[in-house]
Specification:
The protein has 702 residues and is of the alpha+beta class. It is built from 16 helices and 35 strands. Strand 11 and strand 12 form a beta hairpin. Helix 1 packs across helix 9, helix 10 packs across helix 11 and helix 12 crosses helix 13. The longest helix is centred in the middle third of the chain and has 17 residues. The two termini are 38 Å apart. 47% of the residues are buried.
Length: 702
């Protein structure tokens, strides 16, 4: 988000209160036309001189090179538009499931949502999943049918399909504007509330029945309007708009209209948002209701790095007023809100720091414009505010409690990486630190056993964007390598071992002899050390040396290079020399004795096993069960969480889960949610252990 001012963006009129603001998020599956709709709205509102195209890489929302290459959004963009005295902040998040964190943040930050469904596939599995998220957050919702000119069925039939797929009650999904189509091409609309015609509408078009049905639906949800309606009174437009606004805010009615990629329906949607959507003072979703007369409460939605001004924080102002040249407190959330995960927030919880805001700016896609202040309900940018993290609360009252963190999915796809060169290695640490701040969905692991650097991503598209940003933004090239799962080894049977270190060739020598007995312990018991030496065969001052030598060899392993665990090692005998014995000598002899015992026992590999929970539609349960079986999974059971949805619990070897997020998404068309948690180590089957490569780790399989 560069600090460069767009000429038209600079024309946005400053707002003086939250009543003038509408924060609206465009949500929908990838490819339904959200960014194209945002561009149409910006053009209709006069914010851009020409509507850009996704295929040309000229839209305001998509400005990263990888967005142009892939022709899809990968980050949240905000477009403030002026329309008939109202500021409409259009939030355009990605629709791809890999970037769900951006969508969830926008959905919670907005005061209403426009759910975009494609006329060519209005009820895809991904669309139903996103609708459920809107229901979960309690966000007022409208439905916009995009690509109407490509529809294979009528607008009314599409709405009926959506009504059934979303599980809506009677009369809750209602068209506000009826599109008029001639030869498959939308040519105009009829406003059912005002009766006005827009575009080329034939004079003989009769929408009286549709209007009567809409008026009856609005009146039926409001006792006062219903009394007037039943009394035969002709309800005026203002009363209908007030009733509509009330029902939209209460989520008892979802207005619907149609648009095309050429801008048809854009002005009607702007009218609907400005006239009937809730302002921030009537917020019903999660988060505080906006109030300008109480202390400042704002929350960081996104952080981007700019080569000219450094860090830029995109924030939603909930209460109070955000002003330049003021001191604020930045408060870290006490806990993260991860959907279906067990991963804790990577940032210190509950931390509070004092900072100073120097200037403010307003976002407009990749550009910004100076603004005098950020009023309650608005979305603004704070340049140069260091030390923040996504989800932090910004306040001018140190007693204010931090807001809950933005919800985000867990990153479950591991990508092993290595610096491409020494120059890249020198820059990699700093680049990753910046990426982790800008992208809270990304997780970094430095495994102490495999010595592998692992980027945990939400999917392949997220991984591709992360590697692209490392290269383009930070000039760091990395190579991807197979992800390795850390294994362990243990004794399969008890055994004895003899360790002898005798080097006496004149001068001070080395002398130590150890005899050890090793017995396997139950999984998870760790390591026990016992002493049964009689007669002082090993002097007491060297017994700690024996234990230290054993522990050192346990960490290095005895057969495959993996740590040795779950054994009891007993020192039963040994010998010492009054001059040549030493701490180092007994450490070495103990290690030799442990390896000798291993040569007389069956050494078994242990692999980590994860507890897995999958929430999915019943339609895909059979396919997912079969896939888990192929991954050596043990299914513990399934249960119904809600009609048509199942919760599956299983235990699966972690080596089989490396690509499970990708495969599960493919199996269920993006409708399943998956969580995993390390459970324990178990003996690896011999057939699988045969794949061991001997380099200290086993590359993950599926």
């Amino acid at each position: 988000m560069a600090d460069r001012t767009s000429a038209r963006a600079a024309q946005v009129t400053p707002v003086t209160g939250p009543e003038q603001i509408r924060n609206v998020v465009l949500v929908g599956a990838s490819g339904v036309g959200k960014t194209t709709l945002a561009e149409s709205l910006a053009f209709a509102a006069g914010a851009v001189g020409k509507a850009g195209r996704v295929s040309d890489g000229t839209t305001v929302s998509d400005h990263e090179d990888i967005e142009h290459q892939q022709q899809r959004s990968v980050q949240l963009s905000v477009l403030p538009l002026d329309w008939k005295g109202v500021r409409i902040n259009v939030l355009d998040p990605p629709g791809h499931p890999d970037f769900e964190a951006e969508m969830l943040t926008a959905l919670r930050a907005a005061d209403a949502g426009v759910f975009v469904v494609s006329a060519t596939d209005p009820v895809s599995a991904a669309t139903r999943t996103i609708w459920r998220a809107g229901v979960e957050f309690g966000v007022p919702r409208a439905v916009v049918v995009s690509k109407l000119d490509l529809a294979r069925e009528s607008f009314e039939d599409i709405l009926e399909t959506c009504h059934d797929a979303f599980g809506l009650g009677p009369d809750t999904l209602r068209p506000i504007y009826i599109p008029v189509v001639r030869d498959g091409v939308p040519v105009g609309t009829v406003d059912l509330l005002t009766g006005r015609h827009h575009g080329d509408v034939p004079a003989d078009v009769d929408t009286s029945a549709a209007r009567e049905s809409l008026v009856e639906a609005i009146s039926g949800l409001d006792d006062t309007l219903m009394e007037r309606y039943l009394g035969g009174e002709e309800l005026d437009t203002d009363a209908l708009f007030a009733g509509l606004r009330h029902e939209i805010t209460d989520c008892t009615l979802h207005p619907a209209l149609a648009v095309t990629d050429t801008g048809f329906g854009a002005e009607e949607l702007l009218d609907l948002i400005a006239g009937s959507f809730p302002d921030p003072t009537h917020r019903v979703g999660p988060g505080p209701v906006s109030d300008a007369d109480i202390p400042l409460t704002a929350q960081v939605m996104r952080i981007t790095g700019d080569p000219y001004v450094g860090r830029i924080n995109l924030v939603r102002v909930y209460t109070g007023t955000l002003r330049p040249d003021t001191h604020v407190w930045v408060k870290r959330p006490t806990e993260s809100v991860n959907r279906g995960t067990s991963t804790a927030s990577p940032t210190p919880a509950g931390e509070t720091v004092e900072d100073r805001i120097t200037t403010l700016s307003g976002p407009f896609g990749a550009t910004t414009r100076p603004i005098p202040e950020g009023v309650a309900g608005d979305i603004v940018c704070i340049p140069k505010l260091a030390g923040t993290h996504v989800g932090d609360t910004i306040t001018d009252d140190p007693s204010t409690l931090p807001l809950p963190a933005w919800p985000r999915p867990d990153a479950l796809l591991p990508i092993g990486v290595e610096a491409h060169s020494k120059a890249d290695e020198d820059k990699l640490s700093q680049a990753l630190t910046r990426l982790l701040v800008e992208d809270p969905a990304l997780r970094l692991e430095q495994n102490p056993q495999t010595h592998q650097l692992v980027l945990w991503c939400t999917g392949e598209a997220h991984a591709e964007v992360t590697l692209d940003r490392l290269r383009r933004r930070h000039g760091v090239h990395v190579d991807t390598v197979p992800y390795q799962v850390a294994l362990r080894e243990t004794f399969g049977t008890g055994a004895s071992g003899h360790g002898r270190l005798v080097k006496q060739s004149g001068g001070h020598g080395q002398y130590a002899i150890c005899d050890l007995e090793v017995q396997p312990l139950p999984t998870g018991e760790g390591f026990e050390f016992a002493v049964k030496v009689v007669g002082g065969a090993v002097p007491k001052n060297f017994i700690p040396s024996v234990e230290k030598g054993v522990r050192t060899q346990l960490a290095a392993g005895v057969a495959t290079g993996h740590p040795l665990v779950d054994v009891r090692v007993t020192l039963v005998d040994g010998k010492a020399h009054s001059v040549d014995s030493s701490d180092a000598a007994f450490q070495t002899a103990a290690a030799l004795a442990l390896k000798d015992a291993a040569s007389h026992s069956e050494i078994r590999l242990l692999e980590p096993v994860a507890a897995v929970r999958v929430t999915l539609p019943d339609d895909y349960l059979g396919a997912v069960l079969g896939d888990l079986s192929a991954r050596r999974g043990h299914v513990l059971g399934t249960e119904t969480t809600e009609p048509g949805t199942a919760l599956l619990r299983a235990e699966v070897p972690e080596i089989e889960l490396a690509r499970y997020p990708v495969d599960l998404r493919s199996l269920t068309h993006g409708t399943a949610e998956f969580a995993r948690m390390h459970l324990r180590y178990e003996v690896m089957p011999a057939a699988v252990a045969a794949r061991y490569t001997g380099d200290g780790a086993v590359p993950a399989g599926r």
